[in-house]
Amino acid sequence: MNPSHIILVDEQDNEIGTVEKLAAHQRGYLHRAFSVFIVDRKGNMLLQQRAFDKYHSGGLWTNACCSHPNPGEAIEAAAHRRLREEMGFQCPLDKLFEFTYHSHLENGLIEHEYDHVFIGIHEGTIEPDPAEVHSYRYSPIGEISSLVASTPQVFTSWFLLAFPNVARCLTDITKVC
Questions:
Q1: Number of domains the chain is built from
Q2: Which site from 5, 81, 112, 165 is most exposed, i.e. has the minimal number of CB atoms within 10 Å?
Q3: Residue 84 belongs to a domain
Q4: What residues make up the domain containing 94?
Q5: Residues in the chain with pLDDT < 70?
Q6: pLDDT of amino acid 3
Q7: Which CATH number belongs to the domain containing residue 107 in this structure?
């Protein structure tokens, strides 16, 4: 199967086919995705600023990484793969929750995803792929909450939806819900 294809799903995340990634975003088809959030033991969250030349949401701030599993690839394996590809490191990941969202993007594309949200703890070296990531930083959860409230336009649509639930789950930074 072509890796530029992504998995189409129904509202219960059952696979119903595959389609080319850009076509899914042009037509707003519901497809499987994941978002990885990374924190350190001090209560800071890793944010990445997407590369400016990404085909959508370029230059916006978001969680450590996000993408789609390839057809036939397990969702957790895909999350680990993309974390390594985008941010240049690996760490254990725990699944927090899933949610579905539908969002119109700035360039006429549509995100309609069944998003699996993972979290991990990492305090080591970060070596981001410059084709994926323009910048990155660790920020306190409270500071991110303030920025989301005051300047939501600088964040990706999926980050704005997932972040409040992730922040609620982080009651103890060394043990996630």
A1: 1
A2: 165
A3: yes
A4: 5-169
A5: 1-3, 171-177
A6: 58
A7: 3.90.79.10
pLDDT attached to residue 132: 95
pLDDT at 171: 64
| pLDDT tens digits, 52-65 | 998 788 899 999 99
pLDDT recorded at residue 177: 44
Establish whether 66 is a catalytic residue.
yes
Asked if residue 156 lies in contact with residue 58, where contact means CB atoms within 8 angstroms, the answer is no
Considering the candidates 113, 127, 169, 177, report the single residue annotated as catalytic.
113
**Which residues neighbour 88 within 8 Å (Cβ) at sequence distance 6 or greater?**
125, 126, 127, 128, 129
Cα(119)–Cα(176) distance, integer angstroms = 8
Among candidate residues 11, 65, 66, 85, the one labeled active-site is: 66
